[in-house]
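User: Here's a chain of 131 residues. Predict its fold as C-alpha cells.
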Amino acid sequence: MPVEVGQILEGRVTGITKFGAFVEISEGVTGLVHISEVADSFVKDVNDFLKENDIIKVKVISISSDGKVSLSIRKTKENSNNSYRKPKQNDLSFEDKLSKFLKDSEERLLDIKKNNESKRGSGSYGRRKIL
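Assistant: Prediction complete.
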C-alpha cells in the first residue's frame, strides 16, 4: 500500500530514541514521529508517552525526496474531532502550565544563546577607534 501525505494510519512503535519514535506503518515502511509531534504538551522523554510495540494512530505529515517519512501523533487528534480547540490557559492543569512554561523558557534561552554567539563571531566587539 503506497503511503501518502495526509493519511492517518495505524502503526506499531519499533524503536524509541531521545529525539522521537520509529513507527512501522505498513510492510517495510517505517517513519519517524519527532519528539515535538508526540503530544500537545511538552515532551521531555518519549518513553513517558510511548513504549515499543505500542499500536498507535499517526498522520503522515511529509515524505522527503529520499523516502524518509515524517509522522505526527498530535495531528491525528486535530482531524479526529472537528470541534478540536486548543485549550485556554485556564483549562490547563498545573503540570501542563509548568510544562508549557519550561518549553517556552528553553526556547527563549536557546534564542538568546544563539544571538549572543552570533554577536561574538562578528568581530565588532573589541575593536576600538584609534584617534
